[in-house]
Every structure is written in C-alpha cells, then in structure tokens.
Amino acid sequence: MKIAMIGTGYVGLVSGVCFSDFGHEVVCVDKDPRKIEMLTRGEVPIYEPGLDVLMAKNVAAGRLSFTGDLAQAVDGAEAVFIAVGTPTRRGDGHADLSYVMAAAEEIAHALTGYAVVVTKSTVPVGTNARVAEVIRAARPEAEFDVASNPEFLREGAAIDDFMRPDRVVVGVTSDRAKAVMGEIYRPLFLRDFPIVYTGLESAEMIKYAANAFLATKITFINEIAALCEKVGADVKTVAKGIGLDGRIGNKFLHAGPGYGGSCFPKDTMALARIGQDHAAPMQIVETVIQINDAVKRRMIDKVVDLCGGSVNGKTVAVLGVTFKPNTDDMRDAPALTIVPALVGGGAKVRVVDPQGRREGEALLPGVTWLEDAYEAAAGADVLVILTEWNEFRALDLERLAAAMATARMADLRNVYDAADAAKAGFAAYVGVGR
C-alpha cells in the first residue's frame, strides 16, 4: 500500500520506518528542510536504538523516502497519517491542535482519490471528528474517511513495541476504512497480535486513559516510597511484593524522581482539562500531576540534605539527565527541575549523559558537560544518579569514592544499595524509599 506520513518527529519517523518494513511504500513528509536533508543523507535526527539501521534498509529497498512536498506524498496514497506534535497549549493545559488542523487542511487540498486520513498524534476526544469537518470544509467533494490510530511506543524500545505490540487500537466509522487499516496492519494480524477496532472517541480515550493509568502507578509508588522512608520499610521490597500480584503487575513500580518525557506530563494535563471541560473532573489525575511535581522537589531536598543543608560551593556530579535511558529526549525530564535548582543554590554541576548533551546544552545552562562518570566524580562533593543508563549500573564504586572530595551518593534510581556503597568507601548514601 502507499502511505503518506505527515511529520517526522518521534512517532512519525518510527511509524513510517516500521510501516515500510512491513512492505508498504511510505513517504515521510516534514516542513523542516534541514530535517529532510538529514534523513535523505541517512542521518536520524533522534536517538532510538536500531532506527538508523532499519531506516537504511528500507530506503535501500526503495520502500521509504522523504520529502518536504506534502502534495507529492499524498498523491495516490491510500492512507495519510497525521503524526505532528500536540504540545501542551500555553496557559490552559489543553493539547495544542493547531498543527493537526493545519495538516488536515493541507491534506484536503492534496487528496487525489479515496484515502483514509489517520490521526496518529495524541489528541483529545472529538479531534478526529474535527479533522473530518476541516477536510469537508476545504474540499466538499473529497472522498475520504478518518481513523484514529493512537501510538503506544516507549522511547528506547519503540521498534520492538511497533513490531510486537501489546495491541493496536484503530478507531473507524466505516467498513471501507476498517478494510484499509486492516490491510496496513495485516503483518501483525497474521502473527496474532491483537487489533482492537473501536469508534473514534473510544480510540482517542484509550490513549489518554492508558498513559494516565501508568503515570498514576509511578506516582503511587513514589508516594509509598516517601512513607517507606518514614517507617523504615524498603520500597524495592514493597514494590516486588505487590507487583507479584497478577492484578497489579510489576511494571512502572520503580520509585524515583518522578515521570517526565513527551507523553505522561502532556497527556495527564490534557486529560485533566478534558474532564474539567465536560464537568467530569479527573480528580485522581489532577492529584497525580501535583504529586509528581512535589516528588521532583523532594529529590532536590535529598541532595541538599546530603550536603549538610546547602549546596553552595559544592561540586555535584550528575549522572544522566534524559527523562529515561536509551533516548535523547529531555522533555519534562526531572533533571530540568533538579539540576537548575542545584545550580541556583550555588553548586558547580558536572553532567554526564550518553545522549543528553545535544538537547541538554541549551536546556541546562551553567553546567559542565563531561564524557565519563569517573572524570565527573573527581574532586566532587556528591554524586547524583538521575537516569539509570546501563553505563551507570556497574560503576566501580571504590574508584568513585576514592576520587571524590567527599564520598556521598544520592541514588535517585535505587541502582545500588547502602551496604555496597558503604563497603566501597562512601561516607553517606541516600536512595528513594529506603
């Protein structure tokens, strides 16, 4: 099938590459000529393990191409995916749909025959109906259907999530659109991966409800962690004990500095606003947002307390600033709250992150970027583990402690434990919920 993918951000690029690997002919469109030039040269503008290899393979096979010309890409396409950004709108917390609607109008003028216009972007309930209205208003004679096909990709594991999904959610309003979407996802159907067909509104809601639930699990275990610290329990043991219950599960029960990234902060905020607008307040979600902000501030207090009540004049080595490992994404990362607070408190902050520097240099002014954890620790007063990259999971603790001016560790991901840190020579160690 011929597919046009509008937007080459994280979702659009991963989806386009993976669809081409299914055997479809995919043209990815972006308005940024620099990005199109990069992609045409074979360079990937985001860090996602394995994406560069898969992209090169399908470009070489002639199934994948990139262009800035939307009309060219849409001409003859059987499905046109909208995968543009829906950032939080400044001032009111709603998702900004201006890019989605602009894409819909441009698609309307470019349609040359029947096509399914598929919203891949995360959008509030009712957006796909609005997309249809925009297209009809721009081209009353156009022959099309709209569909909702939310993504559930984890950054750092996106290709595996696309190729081996827990489920594919498809919202449609006609049998013709369902047939087109079924053909697009036929390789997954043949391998017995669940494809859930729903109406448009249910598909839109599934995405928000899923992300809000996962954000709630993270926030719940962080609240339990705070209580564990007060009563002498170990949150890692507590999480294991409750996670073995099949009704709960062990995923997203890792205490830490709070959630971040491109989805959870934006989607919980949008869902809360949707609830308010429809007189059905999402009280749990609203509380989750408040608690997550408080968790980040509590992490700052841990570091300050470890330094005797002030970080002024202290050298702090921070390991990891992306919101999670295996990505270069800094959006709403806890580091964007914690690191500036340390700098503002007078600390000299050194940062090491395998992929975070490209975005982080602009977002974290006043820090020194280094390439090696041991170099960062040399002469430092405290070591902070903020993102649990594999490179930071098997450090030589004795070497670190010996290199530091004062061997203190704030392990905000519970990578190590107090006994091992003490044995290695750390004078002080704090984790989360322990």
Task: Please name the defining characteristics of this protein.
single chain; 434 residues; alpha/beta; Rossmann fold; N-(1-d-carboxylethyl)-l-norvaline Dehydrogenase, domain 2; 3 domains; 6-stranded parallel β-sheet; 18 helices; 45% helix; elongated
Walkthrough of the structure:
By secondary structure, the protein is an alpha/beta fold. The protein folds into three domains: 2-198, NAD(P)-binding Rossmann-like Domain (Rossmann fold, 3-Layer(aba) Sandwich), CATH 3.40.50; 208-290, Orthogonal Bundle (N-(1-d-carboxylethyl)-l-norvaline Dehydrogenase, domain 2); 295-430, Rossmann fold (3-Layer(aba) Sandwich). The chain is 45% helix and 14% strand. The chain is built from 18 helices and 14 strands. It has helices at residues 10-21, 33-40, 51-60, 70-74, 98-110, 127-138, 158-163, 175-184, 186-189, 200-231, 235-243, 264-277, 283-306, 335-344, 357-363, 373-377, 397-403, 418-424, and strands spanning 2-6, 25-29, 64-67, 79-82, 115-119, 144-148, 168-171, 195-198, 315-319, 348-352, 368-369, 382-385, 408-411, 428-430. Strands 3-2-1-4-5-6 form a six-stranded parallel beta sheet, sandwiched between helices. It has a six-stranded parallel beta sheet with strand order 11-10-9-12-13-14, sandwiched between helices. The chain has a two-stranded parallel sheet with strand order 7-8. Helix 10 (200-231) packs across helix 12 (264-277). It is elongated. It starts with a strand and ends with a strand. The model has no long low-confidence stretch (mean pLDDT 96).
